Amino acid sequence: MHPAPHADDGSYYECRNCGHREVADSLGRCPKCNGRTRNIAVARE
C-alpha cells in the first residue's frame, strides 16, 4: 500500500510562544523565537 500523495514525512509542531507551525520529524524548539513546541498531530482528549 502506498501513502497518499499529500501525506507528509513528519509531524506537525506548533510553538507554544509565537504559534509558528512546521512539519518535522522532531522539533524541540521553535526556529523563530526558540520557544518550546508541541506535536499537534497527536490526538488529545
UniProtKB/TrEMBL annotation:
It holds the Pfam family DUF7129. NCBIfam families: rubre_like_arch. This is Rubrerythrin-like domain-containing protein. Residues 6-45 form the DUF7129 domain. InterPro entries: DUF7129 (IPR055553). It comes from the Archaea.
